[in-house]
């Protein structure tokens, strides 16, 4: 029985119990959302290492990380290392988008080790096995999907909404069809003159998914690849088909989420999310970005995190991260880390704005630690503790600096929080001397005098290369 079938029958599963605990809601609340199709618990019955999680607008915003090899680069060890990095830095789900060698071994290793749901795009393996996209048969496609379901994959991107009738609608586009799955299927449809095989065989795919409780991630194969193509007829024609397929999957008892764009100008994002929710009857929306500008290759984790924040605010349930390598190359471990940081910020910012239970408490705890100069607590609470500690220690490396009431950003004389605190404590706020130009001479205050850096903590090596040395500067003053 799938999670959806169980929920409809009024059964609270172990996975729902666990999800309720993680989200701090009642199991019944989870069951109701799953029964209505407003939330999914990707949870293949063969994925034994999984710690169940939920994706839905009624819960915290989730983040997916894409990993995977390509023909040009990467092997199984580096893929497992990327999986580890993704989970370590907070990915809620991981998609294995491998298109290179050892596909089965990499997939099986990922499922065996991953505590988070694993997603795949089976059309990639179908192309590898067929040798050419146009040679894919219906039987081969179903065989690949069934095999991956049996390997424990929790959700699969199925680009069943790319229909023969939609392809002419992409003709005037600036960047054509940019989805890998979408472009493969479009070529197959054009060469064979037949309907999309994933659409034609959708009922049979549903039967496979029911058996293993695989969740659909209905792919947006016609998503816009640039701002100019956003919101065109092709994108919305496919969305209408995804709405139809959502209802078909639900009728089979299969869980569904729906994928979204892409590249979308900021002012269109909320409207597009709202449209998806209406067309797909509230099925969870899983968005890639969207990128809000096309002009920043190398920084697309930022351009897309801005759009992702807006999308989450408007109702998207899961954000697919984008790394700095987007459009440029295969992400490495450091790119996975950067992409995840950007997207966890986006998800959290939306959760804070939406008033999700416990979200703001994190910000408040970190701010209190910051104002108290409790550096260790501040690092501990940071979204990426290693990065926070590393940046702090680059200029103030001694242990004692973790007790200091300043950092190298403003320096000892101009640390505003220290000045503020001391002024409040001593009542000297109104007595701070000025130099006649109405500029505050904070170094002349009694508060500054008592807050010189601890003696003997300077790393001499750090000052040799020109690194600012606050103690020396203060003495020279
Ligand atoms: S020196 Fe500036 S940045 Fe550093 S703790 Fe003080 S106020 Fe904050």
CATH H level of the largest domain: which superfamily?
Answer: Radical SAM ThiC family, central domain
Q: What is the averaged pLDDT score?
A: 90
| Overall geometric form | globular
Helix content: 40-55%
Largest sheet: 8 strands, parallel, barrel
CATH topology of the largest domain: TIM Barrel
Report the structural category.
Answer: alpha/beta
Separation, N- and C-terminal Cα atoms: 75 Å
Give the CATH level 1 class of the largest domain.
Answer: Alpha Beta
| Count of individual helical segments | 21
Radius of gyration, in angstroms, nearest whole number? 26 Å
Keywords: 4Fe-4S, Iron, Iron-sulfur, Lyase, Metal-binding, S-adenosyl-L-methionine, Thiamine biosynthesis, Zinc
GO molecular function, one term: 4 iron, 4 sulfur cluster binding
Biased composition (Basic and acidic residues): 15-25
InterPro entries: ThiC, ThiC/Bza_core_dom, ThiC/BzaA/B
Could you characterize the architecture of this molecule?
The structure is a single chain. The protein is of the alpha/beta class and 477 residues long. The protein has two domains: 3-353, TIM Barrel, CATH 3.20.20; 385-476, no CATH class. The protein has 21 helices and ten strands. An eight-stranded parallel beta barrel has the order 3-4-5-6-7-8-9-10, surrounded by six helices. A two-stranded antiparallel sheet has the order 1-2. Helix 5 links the parallel strand 4 and strand 5. Iron/sulfur cluster binds at residues 406-407, 409-410, 415-418.
């Amino acid at each position: 029985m799938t999670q959806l079938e169980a929920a409809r029958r009024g059964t609270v599963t172990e996975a729902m119990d666990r999800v309720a605990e993680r989200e701090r809601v009642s199991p019944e609340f989870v069951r109701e959302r799953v029964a209505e199709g407003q939330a999914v618990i990707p949870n293949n019955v063969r994925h034994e290492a999984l710690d169940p999680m939920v994706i839905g607008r009624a819960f915290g915003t989730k983040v997916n990380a894409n990993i995977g090899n390509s023909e040009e680069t990467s092997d199984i060890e580096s893929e497992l290392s990327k999986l580890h990095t993704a989970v370590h830095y907070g990915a809620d789900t991981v998609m294995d988008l491998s298109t290179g060698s050892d596909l089965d071994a990499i997939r099986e290793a990922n499922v065996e080790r991953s505590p988070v749901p694993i997603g795949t795009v089976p059309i990639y393996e179908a192309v590898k096995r067929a040798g050419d996209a146009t040679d894919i048969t219906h039987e081969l496609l179903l065989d690949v999907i069934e095999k991956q379901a049996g390997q424990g994959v929790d959700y699969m991107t199925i680009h069943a909404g790319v229909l023969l009738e939609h392809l002419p609608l992409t003709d005037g586009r600036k960047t054509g069809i940019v989805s890998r799955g979408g472009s493969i299927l479009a070529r197959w449809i054009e060469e064979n003159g037949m309907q999309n095989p994933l659409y034609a065989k959708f009922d049979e795919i549903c039967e496979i998914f029911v058996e293993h409780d695989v969740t659909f991630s209905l792919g947006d194969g016609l998503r816009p690849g640039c701002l100019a193509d956003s919101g065109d007829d092709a994108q919305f024609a496919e969305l209408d088909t995804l709405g139809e397929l959502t209802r078909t999957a639900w009728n089979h008892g299969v869980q569904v989420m729906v994928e979204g764009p892409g590249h979308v100008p900021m002012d269109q994002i909320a409207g597009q999310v709202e449209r998806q929710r209406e067309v797909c009857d509230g099925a969870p929306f899983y968005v890639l970005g969207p990128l809000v500008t096309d002009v920043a290759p190398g920084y697309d984790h930022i351009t897309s995190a801005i759009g992702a924040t807006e999308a989450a605010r408007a109702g998207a349930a899961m954000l697919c991260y984008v790394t700095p390598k987007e459009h440029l190359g295969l992400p490495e471990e450091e790119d996975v880390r950067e992409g995840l940081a950007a997207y966890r910020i986006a998800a959290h910012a939306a959760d804070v704005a939406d008033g999700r239970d416990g979200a703001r408490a994190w910000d408040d705890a970190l701010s209190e630690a910051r104002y108290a100069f409790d550096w260790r607590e501040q690092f501990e609470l940071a979204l990426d503790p290693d990065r926070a500690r590393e940046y702090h220690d680059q200029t103030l490396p001694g242990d004692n600096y973790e007790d200091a009431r300043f950092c190298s950003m403003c320096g000892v004389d101009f640390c505003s929080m220290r000045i503020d605190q001391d002024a409040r404590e001593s009542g000297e706020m109104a007595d701070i001397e000025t130099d006649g130009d109405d500029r505050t001479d904070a170094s002349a205050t009694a508060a500054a005098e008592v807050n010189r850096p601890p003696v003997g903590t300077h790393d001499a090596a750090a000052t040799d290369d020109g690194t600012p040395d606050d103690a020396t500067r203060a003495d020279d003053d």
